[in-house]
Design a protein that fits this description.
binds cobalamin, alpha+beta, single chain, four-stranded antiparallel sheet, 13 helices, 8 strands
Amino acid sequence: MTFKERIKNKAYSLGFTQVGISRVESDGEAEDQFRAWLSRGFHGEMHWMERTASKRGDIKNVLPDVQSVVSVAVNYYTNNTPQETKGKGRISRYAWGDDYHYVITNWVRQLATWISAEAKKEGVQCESLAYVDTGPILEKAWAQRAGIGWIGKHSNLVSADYGSWLLLGEVLLTINLEPDIPARDQCGACRLCIEICPTDAIPEPYVLDATKCISYLTIEHRGPIPDLYHSNIGNRIFGCDDCLDICPYNEHATPTSERAFAPRAYALSPDLKKLAHQTLSEFQATFKKSALKRTKHEGLQRNVEIARKNASQE
Ligand code: B12
């Protein structure tokens, strides 16, 4: 078995759904597109993206001697349907279970440690860095190069085998591994994700104007949400899945075997009235291990208020 095959086996044994490898010798197309995106102001108030632009735009600024990237994906799809009766909110699928950062970061770190230890046994020094979401890495672009899937018109990564209910991570390595074949775009003429977006946040295929995206507005944006988006937000209180729900590649999504992603009690039909009365300490206790804490108590209260206003106008 080659080292590459052993790395992949190890990754699957840790729980990853897909694994792919790319070599750091990119043509820089994704990096150029990223800079163009920033210059159009599509990142809104996510100033941390500007601050880390030199790293996001060149992975060598993250780990100078990086030669290979092991990209990983985890399926988080569960066979549940949100119960959308009046007075209930809606939470994005990725936040139904445990915060994926905890689940997957643990796995990528184990993978990184294992690879370095195995390389050392062969007398090879291998530095590594492992990330899930929060690293200054264009994760989707690296996953596409590694053959895991392609960046779809909604700008999320889509796998022909698993659809797009996938979360991404990666291990940067200073050793040279045989790369996989990059994935090719299979969106074809389909424009369903562009057409369904409630706030027209996809001005052109593959480009998301985050400032209009309900996910950005309800999770990343601080302060009041501009009135013009209120009615389109509907009952969404944390993120939005419309562009993914409609994707034909998600029609045959298979449920994950990872129990940490099983929906929490509140996840499928969060009660808006109850949430409106939730105190800061109740928020902290309820969402301690959930991705929902990202929006903070204040943000969730703001979102719940908009959803309640929308419900009262139905
Ligand atoms: C910032 C961010 C956001 C922002 C901006 C989203 C975005 N599209 O970038 C907001 C808050 C809106 C967001 C929302 C969501 N996010 Co988010 N987010 C990120 C983060 C931290 C950085 C992404 C980034 O670099 N964006 C910069 C822009 C330029 O990238 P881009 O839009 O993808 O553009 C690329 C291509 O589209 C292409 N491109 C750009 N312009 C053009 C033009 C042409 C002509 C072509 C062909 C290509 C092209 O090149 C760009 C560079 O690769 C990543 C984690 C990470 N470190 O990568 C997670 C991540 C992308 N998010 C993730 C998730 C799950 C979501 C949500 C589904 C959550 C939800 N349900 O609410 C939504 C999806 C919304 C959407 N349609 O994208 C996952 C996506 C997994 C996947 N299968 O792709 C990631 C990878 C986190 C993770 N580790 O799993 N997110």
